[in-house]
TrEMBL record:
Transmembrane domains' residue ranges: 7-27, 312-332, 344-361, 367-391, 677-703, 715-737, 749-771, 800-817, 824-847
EC main group: transferase
Record-listed E.C. numbers: 2.4.1.336
Record organism: Stutzerimonas kirkiae
Coiled coil: none
Protein name: Beta-monoglucosyldiacylglycerol synthase
Lineage of origin: Bacteria, Pseudomonadati, Pseudomonadota, Gammaproteobacteria, Pseudomonadales
GO MF, any single term: hexosyltransferase activity
Length: 862
């Protein structure tokens, strides 16, 4: 690389790194707020730590409570409790040691017997402990509708008559306005004002609290006012414009406590410590109301500016290092890329690295249990996998669009060439329509090549009326054509080709293979065989092509989808000598085949052979020029079966050659070859993993519908990576098909629909591939009659079922999640986007039945 080019690259990388660092800085601009005062009015005090839960009777020890009391005593002289169960009943005694006054809570619920016990115990503690300065009977019991106003009035009167300290009940502010008669039964008004739950943005919340306080004092002028709960969560779902994050918590509380102190209000901040156990009742946000986290660390600075992510500089540095590592891998052999391509890959590398670091940070802020740790590890692996696929997709796009020139072009040899080796053309067939195969043989008979033979191998076809016409036609075409009917013959297509290899003419130097539906061009061998003059070339490959794309809209979509691989993927792979050998229009050096043979254990024996050839250090040549055209599947089920076989075979190959692909062990594979074989199959593996995401999304959505008040939408990090990959792949298809393949936008959209329709099939093939060793080979039927609507729907029944489940989940969430919010809307969008591949499958199934339906409609009476 020249010094000038290195300098340009360095400037570009520094510029992009500065841009992303600037984005981190912009997101974390310092915001001003009043300093935390030396003393606050009080804290709601629940001393439960990680993995402690009052609902499971798992309480902290007295020493743990003492430590918590000493911590809050540095900021206040007053605390509020909620229950007298277990060690909670000992808090007043322990609080006195720290000089704290206690507002004692008595828990009231719909369990009347438990209420009786709580009241008796609470009265006993309040009489005994001097630290108790007031008693709160019930916490939002009326709001939860667990007791009536009359019952609550009776409880209050009973406790007031038994004690000398003030007694009240704590309710949300609007409950006091709904039941003003309660004021006759209390000594003070204890109201909760929590703007977050009322969808009030942080910027307006302090004024909102002060306004509610003024209204309560006006409504109950003769009763003292206690703001029994004021606070803001640091994590969890948004409530409209009310965001739950650490910065908003810091800004709100620092402004609020100063305002309340200045106006002389008594209040309790909910709460001193995060309470992870509350997530089961209040959703994930319930765990994050503490000023201290569950490890008893202050969650935000008490003085100075507030930023969204205090550690943003460290995170920006980590994302920069990760981006540079990814970029170093992407830029291997990248000297042929134009500057725009290198800039594009740099931006993608920094974007992916930033997303990964942000996801890791966001997840690190969640409280973990065995379930969340398990999900977190799966999520981390899934996110890493998705980002790797995203990088490989971006790399292919860059090499397709911004390469100066192709590095290994293999153009057809149109002039005279002294090298004209003998070619043996092998045509395997099984139960194929005789008329179709005869067309293939007739095309071979017109080859403009001096020295070739044709071997037709019909393996295991039972019906003589299918294979005997082919035998007769070969005899008619002359001695160049030899026909073999073998039954039984093991090994599927690989077995048939190995059988043909045994009967190949001794002087044949090249073995060519075509499928039985392919009509080759007369110049095929003449223009491609001379490439074997290079002794390192072991494979010469031409693209698969098709001649029936105009027969139906279904086949038009299939045709558009096929073109992407042969005119984008194979071209970029050829530059690094890493093409996928496919089983038609392929030519292989005879000596190499004699040594390696076709693999009979693999249902994609062609691709497997090509990889073994590369492992031996030999090369392949690929020409984009089409020399033969075959027939596409006639039905959607056959289209799916073909792709299932390709994907399943890919996993078979990965499993067999894993050490070679990952480590280069026992092979002569170059880095570029290993990269393309792994990167080329990663999107299929991603489709396989996507099944688990869909399954998890449906389970999570079901929980949101069944218990909408307890289950929040998933965190953004659960859905962002697969959604980002989907959108990128879709955009890439639409862009590349127009730019590299040269098709119209509607054809690019057609390719996207056909490709999406295969996602579920590929996913199943990948999972089957990893779970099983082999499956029977199945051919792709050609020239099969079209079928009716019901049959077409049956072909997509799995996809339709999953699509309806996803649509039902989206509808159910929209109906049950009454409070809505951006997180709910985002999750609904994720479910709908997740359904698009299944909708595409339904469209393809219906289109495959369209000709039959049209013909039927033409016969309807007027």
């Amino acid at each position: 690389m020249s010094a000038r080019k290195f300098g340009l690259n360095l400037v570009m990388v520094v510029a992009v790194a500065s841009l992303f660092t600037g984005l981190w800085a912009w997101y974390n601009q310092p915001l001003s707020a009043p300093d935390w005062p030396e003393q606050i009015s009080g804290y709601s005090f629940s001393p439960f730590r990680l993995h402690q839960n009052p609902q499971q009777a798992h309480y902290p020890s007295e020493d743990e409570v003492r430590a918590d009391l000493e911590l809050v005593a540095a900021q206040t002289d007053s605390i509020r409790t909620y229950s007298v169960d277990g060690v909670l009943g000992e808090i007043p005694r322990l609080a006195e040691e720290s000089g704290l006054r206690v507002t004692l809570g008595i828990w009231i619920s719909n369990d009347l017997a438990a209420n009786e016990w709580q009241i008796e115990k609470g009265i006993e503690i309040a009489r005994r402990e001097r630290s108790v300065v007031r008693v709160i009977v019930g916490n939002e019991a009326l709001f939860r509708e667990e007791v009536s106003a009359e019952q609550m009035a009776g409880y209050l009167d009973r406790v007031r008559s038994a004690l000398k300290v003030p007694v009240t009940t704590a309710e949300q502010w609007h409950i006091w306005e709904k039941y003003p008669e309660l004021a006759r039964h209390v000594d003070l008004i204890a109201a909760h004002v929590l703007p977050y739950w009322e969808f009030i943005p942080q910027e307006q919340s302090v004024d909102y609290v002060l306004q509610r306080a003024r209204e309560l004092k006006k409504t109950f002028p003769k009763k003292p006012l206690l703001l029994a709960e004021v606070g803001w969560p640091s994590n969890g779902r948004a409530q409209g414009r009310a965001e739950a994050n650490q910065a908003d918590q810091a800004l709100y509380l620092r402004k609020l406590v100063n305002a309340l102190n200045g106006n002389g209000y008594k209040y309790f901040i909910i709460e001193a410590f995060d309470q992870p156990w509350k997530a089961s009742d209040e959703g994930s946000v319930g765990a994050y109301w503490g000023v201290f986290n569950a490890e008893r660390q202050m969650k935000f600075p008490m003085t100075g500016p507030v930023v969204e992510i205090p550690q943003w500089r460290l995170l920006a540095s980590a994302s920069g290092v990760l981006a540079l590592l990814a970029l170093a891998l992407l830029m291997i052999d990248g000297s042929a890329l134009r500057q725009r391509g290198r800039t594009f890959l740099t931006i993608i590398a920094f974007l992916v690295a930033t997303m990964l670091v942000w996801i890791a940070y966001d997840f690190s802020q969640q409280y973990a249990n065995w379930f969340s740790i398990t999900v977190g590890l799966l999520l981390a692996l899934g996110a890493l996998g998705v980002m790797i696929v995203l990088l490989t997709e971006a790399h292919e796009l860059a090499e397709t669009v911004w390469k100066r020139q192709r590095q290994r072009p293999f153009l057809p040899v149109t002039g005279d060439s002294g090298y004209r080796p003998k070619v043996s053309v092998h045509v395997p067939c099984y139960n194929e329509p005789p008329g179709m195969v005869i067309q293939t043989l007739d095309a071979l008979s017109r080859l403009d090549y001096a020295d070739f033979e044709v071997l037709v191998i019909d393996n295991n076809t039972r019906d003589p009326e299918v294979w005997e016409p082919l035998q007769a036609h070969c005899e008619k075409l002359g001695p160049r054509f030899r026909f073999f009917h073998v039954a039984p013959l093991a090994g599927f297509k690989g077995g048939a080709l190995n059988y043909a290899l045994q009967h190949t003419a001794a002087d044949a130097e090249i073995i060519a293979v075509i499928d039985s539906d392919y009509c080759v061009a007369p110049e095929w061998l003449k223009q491609m065989a001379p490439h074997f003059a290079d002794p390192h070339i072991a494979v010469v490959q031409s693209p698969q092509d098709y001649r029936d794309e105009q027969e139906s809209l279904f086949k038009k979509l299939c045709y558009c989808e096929y073109k992407g691989f042969f005119h984008i993927g194979m071209v970029t792979r050829n530059d690094r000598d890493a093409i996928i050998q496919h089983g038609t229009m392929t030519m292989t050096r005879r000596s190499v085949l004699d040594e390696l043979k076709w693999a009979e254990w693999c249902i994609t024996e062609d691709a497997e052979l090509g990889l073994r050839i590369f492992e031996k250090g030999l090369s392949a040549a690929y020409s984009e020029h089409s020399f033969g055209k075959g027939l596409m599947p006639d039905t959607f089920i056959d289209f799916k079966k073909q792709r299932f076989r390709w994907a399943y075979g890919a996993i078979q190959i990965i499993k067999r050659h894993l050490s070679s692909l990952l480590l280069g062990k026992g092979s002569q594979l170059k880095r570029g070859q290993r990269y393309h074989f792994i990167a080329g199959w990663l999107p299929w593996i991603a489709d396989g993993l996507n099944i688990f995401f869909t399954f998890g999304a449906l389970l999570w959505s079901a929980a949101m519908i069944i218990v909408p008040n307890r289950v929040d939408p998933p965190l953004m990090l659960f859905a962002l990576p697969p959604l980002a990959l989907f959108l990128f792949k879709l955009g890439k298809i639409l862009f590349l098909y127009r730019r590299a393949v040269g098709v119209r936008m509607r054809d690019a959209i057609a390719a996207a629909i056909a490709g999406l329709a295969l996602s579920h099939t590929i996913a199943k093939a990948v999972l089957y591939g990893f779970a099983t060793r082999s499956i029977p080979f199945f051919r792709t039927p050609k020239m099969r009659s079209n079928h009716g609507l019901l049959v077409a729907l049956n072909e997509a029944r799995e996809e339709v079922f999953i699509m309806l489940l996803l649509w039902g989940a989206a509808l159910g969430i929209s109906l049950t999640q009454k409070q809505g919010g951006l997180d709910v809307l985002f999750w609904i969008i994720v479910l709908l986007v997740q359904s698009l591949p299944y909708l595409a499958a339904l469209i393809m199934a219906l289109l495959s039945a369209r000709p039959r339906l049209a013909a039927h409609e033409d016969k309807l009476p007027d």
